[in-house]
Amino acid sequence: MTVTSLYRLNTAEWTLDYSAATQLQQPGEPYPGWCPCYLLEHPEGLVLFDTGVSREMAADPTTYGPNGAPHMVELLETLDLEVGQSPTDHLAALGYVPDDVDYVVLSHLHTDHAGNIDSFPDAEFIVQKAELRYAFWPDGVQSLFYLEGDFSPLRSHEYDVTAITGEYDLFGDGSVVAFPTPGHTPGHQSLAVDLESSTVILAADVANSRPGYENGLVASFAWSLEASLESIQTVRDRARLTDADVIVHHDPADQERLPDPPEALR
């Protein structure tokens, strides 16, 4: 079987300095990165890849989660929520409610990818074990992007969490395959999606821009430069072997190649 529909659901736009998104290139130039998540319709279940930016966090970061996130106040000055919707609002527009989501695959647990986890308490969450372990004890600049208010529900016995190591075939038919692409974070993963018409690799933050992906220029704040470059090559090799189209998560031009909902890739 294949995925019958892939929807791109944008949640926000977060503007970074271009040199942060694409290693030391064009310092001072703005880079308006999209913050989407993706909905996959499959005959055996509904899948969400990432959960986007939390509007609750954006409204009051100082009281967000068990310990607050006051350092986000300044960073939020460059966040534009008006260009997107929450995942639940996107789902409603497509005729779904949160309980309809069977699986949530998380590329990693940075706040622009893992907000709104608590909107899907009935889903099974698929996340790399290395990412779960690191998220609670990040170091250096990485600590800015991990907010316990986003991912603390994953420690609750009320949530169904599958901590994976390595590649994971969600339905056992090759149509939705998570595969490790560490570097941006220790447990970062990308998603290969087999549609009837094509194969797509949702690369997540393997690189933060299309030029970065093509030229091996990763985010300046990447956890590991060496691992990031190896993961770019992993995605390139998989794309070549499967004739897949690679979508770079934050790149506006890449995102605009995907249709706006309610249209979808099929």
List keywords for this structure.
266 residues; single chain; 10 helices; Metallo-beta-lactamase, Chain A; five-stranded mixed beta sheet; alpha/beta; 24% helix
Show the helix and strand layout.
Layout: E1 5-17, H1 18-21, E2 30-42, E3 45-49, H2 55-59, H3 72-75, E4 79-80, H4 87-93, E5 103-105, H5 111-114, E6 124-128, H6 129-135, H7 148-151, E7 160-164, E8 168-169, E9 176-180, E10 189-194, E11 199-204, H8 210-215, H9 225-242, E12 244-248, H10 252-256
Parallel strand pairs: 3-5, 5-6, 6-7, 11-12
Antiparallel strand pairs: 1-2, 1-4, 2-3, 8-9, 9-10, 10-11
Write a structural description.
This protein has helices spanning 18-21, 55-59, 72-75, 87-93, 111-114, 129-135, 148-151, 210-215, 225-242, 252-256; strands at residues 5-17, 30-42, 45-49, 79-80, 103-105, 124-128, 160-164, 168-169, 176-180, 189-194, 199-204, 244-248. By secondary structure, it is of the alpha/beta class. The chain has a single domain (5-256), classed as Ribonuclease Z/Hydroxyacylglutathione hydrolase-like (Metallo-beta-lactamase, Chain A, 4-Layer Sandwich), CATH 3.60.15.10. The strands form 2 sheets. Strands 4-1-2-3-5-6-7 form a 7-stranded mixed beta sheet. The two termini are 13 Å apart.
